[in-house]
Amino acid sequence: MIGQRIKEIRNNNNLTQEELADGIISRTYLSLIEKGTVQPSTNVLVKLSKRLNCTVNDFMAEVSHFKYNNFEILREIGHYELKVDNEDYEIVKHFIDKEYEQIEDVPLPDSGRIHLIYARYFKFKGDLKRTKLHTDKALQKLSTIAVNQHYVNAVLLKSELLAEDGETDAAIDILEETVYLTTKFGELNISDIKLRFALVKCYIIFKQYYTAYRLTTDIKQISSRLNITYKEEKLKKYEMLTLVKLGKYKDALELAGDSSETDAGIMRAYSLWQLDKVKEADQLLKAIPAPDKEISSIPQISGLYKELTGRLGGL
């Protein structure tokens, strides 16, 4: 009971466990106190009460149920969603420490948004188990209402996790289903672009290059209609890659232009080689700095580079 009250008062003061425990006890020990695993000494209680600007007697009061405050927590959710979008994960930890997922009476959609913040935070931290747990909870709760941006973000994260696990077909299924829902029941928006962008990556993994190319065209058309851009340079690379894989080397060269960027340079060199312009391809390849590790974040482009160096390296 004391631990619950300490936690409640700490949350009311917008303090993390680290901030409250600093210089008094360890964060781990405070966590055990709040869980009721250990009982703190009177000396510790006095120090904690001073930092929390309360009395020790306040720790003995009946624990009030942590009820849902619509305005306050919605504001918090929105604030930390922006922090996640900006990859400000150290700030997001303050939200995680508040354990909002345990609040009573939270409407399912808002609970889903909370779990999605958790999932994206734990993804950044490399905690795959908790990432998957909170992603699935977010999807479950957000699926209770019409498809919106938050549901789409959960789908995007789920598809990414599936693809990383080698379940690209399952990732494609959930993305295609969501594209259908957004197209049927809503107006075009940035979500339609994000979903198709994720599908491009999946279809490239699946070696379905024509489908991937068609999707890049769809994305450009939607972007033009909405007058917005989304990962424009990366999209151009994917489009170029699909053209190369489809054997449309002249189109790939036209799209690449005179770009000296590494990925574009590799695909230019590969296209020139395929068009029997071996000398030009070799010169372009030699101008690309030798990498310390994988030359591209896109595995298929790294594959083109390895093939080129194997064929042209001895010239």
From TrEMBL:
InterPro entries: Cro/C1-type_HTH, HTH-type_regulator_Rgg, Lambda_DNA-bd_dom_sf, TPR-like_helical_dom_sf
Pfam families: HTH_3
Molecular function GO terms recorded: DNA binding
Domain HTH cro/C1-type: 6-59
Signal peptide positions on this chain: none
Protein name: Anaerobic benzoate catabolism transcriptional regulator
